[in-house]
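Hi V.,

You were right to ask for the full record rather than a summary. Here it is.
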Amino acid sequence: MKKAYLLVLVGLVLAFASCDDMLDITPRDKFTNDPSFWNNATQVENYTNSMYGNFSGYGYQGSGGPFYFSTLTDDQVFREFENWTFTNVPNSSSSWNDPYTEIRRSNYLLDGIKSSTLADDVKAKYVAIARLSRAYNYFLLVKRYGDVQWQDHVVLTTDDEYVNGARDDRDKVMDKVLEDLDYAVANIGSGNKVTWSKDLALAMKSEICLYEGTYCKYRTQADNGKAADASRAQKYLTECVNASQQLMGGGYSLTANYGEIYNALSLTGNSEIIFCRHYEKDVLGHSTVDYTSGSTAQSGISKDAIDAFLFLDGKPLATTTKDKSDAPQLVNGKYNLDNMLSVRDKRLGVLIDHTLAFKGHGNARGPLAEMTSSTAYTIGKYYTDKMGDPSATSQIYYCNNIGTGYTDAPIYWLAQIYLNFAEAKAELGNITQADLNNSVNKLQARAGLPDLTLTPEADPANNHGVSNLLWEIRRARRCELMTDGNRYWDLVRWHQLDKLDSSKYPNINRGANLDIVPDCEMTLDNGYVVPVTATRTFDKKYYFYPIPSNQIKNSNGGTTQNPGW
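Predicted structure:
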């Protein structure tokens, strides 16, 4: 195994083993914090490897990452009722603590390396890595909580100004994040697809600046505590475009097969990948394949998500001339979807299996366990039959056990950058047909769809209050990245989180058409599966997570609660 892989694996294991409070004096990954430590390049390198834990990918052992497991969306339906992430104020939360743990880790390096005897260019590289990690974790905090306290040094004593300090304005924090990102882009240097690199920093900048630009364009005083800011939106969307363009001219190219991004044993040679999380057989494994191939009922794809996919004539459900039927056909005792999938966006046929699987009518992939799904649509894009040797016993072991999967997880890849670029340009109002052709239309072609033009026809399903073009770009993003962990935060930054109110949008809690099943054991509504009977209602307070009560208590009033909580 290559040295780079070993460093990443060691760093990831350390990262998943660590979790400390931001006021703890000693970080959990024990080290001697004296000048000699920061003078040793090998020790500093190993220290930065722990920061790879920012990228959870497919998770580690039994834990999950954002792929498949982020089910609080309109794309998936958990097998049980799933309410908002928080419905009450928690005493403590990893959503708050974990990013601050990583920020503290970064600040230890930034404080310690100031007096290091390492060469200036070497120090600059490690500072860049620490600042990139700090930027990413502050991005997580701001997304979740809005205003948060910016910390640029390690808190070592209880009389530090940060201990009882107030939260800082989220805009000022995000400006600091941009400064960290720009420093990382300028100083981190080259690398490969599993190590720190300028391209990784650019990809992160593309993602974060798109979020910030659109969030500031669509936020409202009533719901977000700050009015929309067109000037700020323009600044960040322009930064997104610039970062994306550098990557689009960086020698990356789309892979011919959409599914190869999600079910490859190795992504390090994939031309589309910018950065990935590597797993190693019998060394470092995940459970994403198991959870989407095993006997535990899957969190299936919703009817709302299925209906979002275009037909091969490039038209949506309301206006297509293709066969709109979503009813399965009974073939050899199984409920088959080939007819439906044959006229839809090719990505749908990769995302879901071609046979429905539901209570009383399970389905198995080869020798694996029999699957079912909350919606009858099972998710197939993470599965591969290439893990283990060709024997059925080996395939079962690696596909149907906790922590044994070893397919690589994409973290940043070209399709994301194309989508970021197209959306940012459209939001800026200066997108051209050439821009579409150089970005999102390459994804359309891979999906078997006609090119998107600057003036697409109206879709009656457009309920975002945006132009036809932006609606189609948002659709392209949704379908390309479905179940990848983006959808919830896309709805937040577009100011569309109310679309997760299942009492108003019932199709987000509907599944497959099972009207033809005579002995269906599922609850149906006009023939469609109803996975859960409870409903989730929206309140504007959900645009922010509640600040943990212990954090407020420990700050002696310096930290205040978010509105509505």
